[in-house]
């Protein structure tokens, strides 16, 4: 902190204090959010390009704060991770997602995001098994999505957990693929069932040859390694048409549908087939 004559420093400190207070307030609210039933899961369809149908849903957490309204996950998940609340929240998400999936047809999967802390500070395979058995959902209906940062933080600890999860029969997807700096080395260290190519790679694939070449190469890489390939963030018919001609298995994005409340799943499953 620079001391430029007193006044600037006091202002700076006051601003920082206000930020810290706001954070503490949010943290206090987060601690009671589960018991007050303020969380909700929305579901976004995963669309199979060869079968031309919805083949699963990704569960996306929503927090309906009593006064702030809907707080986006990017605002509270990092905080929940820092203060350790993400373990309890993650358990709630797993249980709710497995329960919701039971209402869908057998061939529809549910994908759940898990954070790094769940790998290192809790018994994730145990929590997954408990959620599956409480809902009586077969393991092959569940997929967990893990970002590279999860692995990066502690690969030695994460690898045995990944193997235990895979052993239990669930599927494992690498999320936001391409955004970290060591994506490629992880593909050799662990047999992912799926890669989800980050939405930043979709930008420009229709207009720009280089953008398309990169997308195409990533798809081919995943395909060559025997993984299912999903492209996230597909927003237009042109992008869909282009990906349809590649070895891309699945797409997800606003063009098919934004995330919707669980009650809308039957409607989303009946989405018209697209050419
Ligand atoms: P993510 O796992 O990469 O999820 C995809 C995000 O992209 C979602 O944002 C989704 O609404 C958004 N999206 C979907 N289609 C499109 C599109 O066509 N264009 C654009 N621009 N965006 C699209 P959301 O729901 O705000 O979630 C943000 C992030 O929060 C997620 O990114 C995930 O990392 C995290 N998150 C969400 N739910 C959970 C959870 O239950 N547990 C944990 N640990 N993290 C979660
Ligand atoms: Ca995800
Ligand atoms: Ca993603
Ligand atoms: Ca494939």
Mean pLDDT: 91
How many β-strand runs? 10
Q: What is the oligomer described by this structure?
A: single chain
The distinct bound ligands, ions and cofactors come out as: ligand C2E, calcium ion
Shape: globular
> How is the main sheet built?
8 strands, mixed, barrel
Structural class: alpha/beta
How helical, in percent, are the residues?
40-55%
Strand order of the largest sheet: 1-2-4-5-6-7-8-9
Low-confidence stretches: none
Q: How large a portion of the residues is in β-strands, by DSSP E?
A: 15-25%
Task: Compute the number of helices.
Answer: 11
What letter string, H or E per element, gives the SSE order?
Answer: HEEEHHEHHEHHEHEHEHEEH
Distance between the first and last residues' Cα: 59 Å
What's the Cα radius of gyration? 20 Å
Domain EAL: 23-273
Protein name: Putative GGDEF/EAL sensory box domain protein
Can you walk me through this structure?
With 275 residues, the chain is of the alpha/beta class. The protein is 45% helix and 20% strand. The protein has helices at 7-33, 73-82, 86-101, 116-120, 124-135, 148-153, 155-167, 183-189, 209-224, 237-244, 265-269, and strands at 39-48, 53-65, 69-71, 109-113, 142-147, 171-177, 194-197, 228-231, 250-251, 260-261. The chain has an eight-stranded mixed β-barrel with strand order 1-2-4-5-6-7-8-9. Helix 10 (237-244) links the parallel strand 8 and strand 9 (250-251). Helix 3 (86-101) runs parallel beside helix 5 (124-135). The longest helix is centred in the N-terminal third of the chain and has 27 residues, at 7-33. It is globular. The model has no long low-confidence stretch (mean pLDDT 91). One calcium ion binds at residues 223, 228-229, 247, 249.
């Amino acid at each position: 902190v620079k001391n430029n004559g007193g006044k600037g420093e006091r202002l700076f400190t006051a601003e920082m204090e206000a930020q810290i207070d706001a954070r503490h307030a949010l943290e206090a609210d987060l601690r009671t959010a589960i018991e007050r039933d303020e969380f909700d899961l929305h579901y976004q369809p995963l669309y199979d390009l060869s079968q031309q149908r919805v083949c699963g849903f990704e569960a996306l957490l929503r927090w309906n704060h009593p006064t702030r309204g809907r707080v986006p996950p990017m605002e509270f998940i990092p905080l929940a991770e820092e203060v350790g609340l993400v373990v309890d929240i993650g358990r709630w998400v797993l249980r709710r997602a497995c329960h919701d999936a039971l209402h869908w047809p057998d061939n529809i999967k549910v994908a759940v995001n898990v954070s790094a802390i769940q790998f290192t500070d809790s018994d994730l395979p145990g929590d997954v098994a408990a959620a599956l058995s409480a809902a009586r959902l077969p393991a092959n209906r569940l997929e967990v999505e893990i970002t590279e940062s999860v692995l990066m933080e502690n690969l030695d600890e994460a690898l045995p957990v990944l193997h235990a999860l895979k052993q239990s029969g669930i599927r494992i997807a690498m999320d936001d693929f391409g955004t970290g700096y060591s994506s490629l080395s992880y593909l050799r260290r662990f047999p992912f069932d799926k890669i989800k190519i980050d939405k930043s790679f979709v930008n420009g694939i229709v207009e720009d040859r280089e953008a398309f070449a990169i997308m195409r190469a990533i798809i081919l890489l995943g395909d060559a390694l025997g993984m299912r390939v999903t492209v996230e963030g597909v927003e237009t018919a042109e992008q869909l048409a282009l990906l349809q001609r590649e070895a891309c298995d699945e797409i997800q994005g606003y063009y098919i549908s934004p995330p919707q409340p669980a009650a809308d799943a039957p409607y989303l499953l009946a989405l018209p087939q697209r050419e």
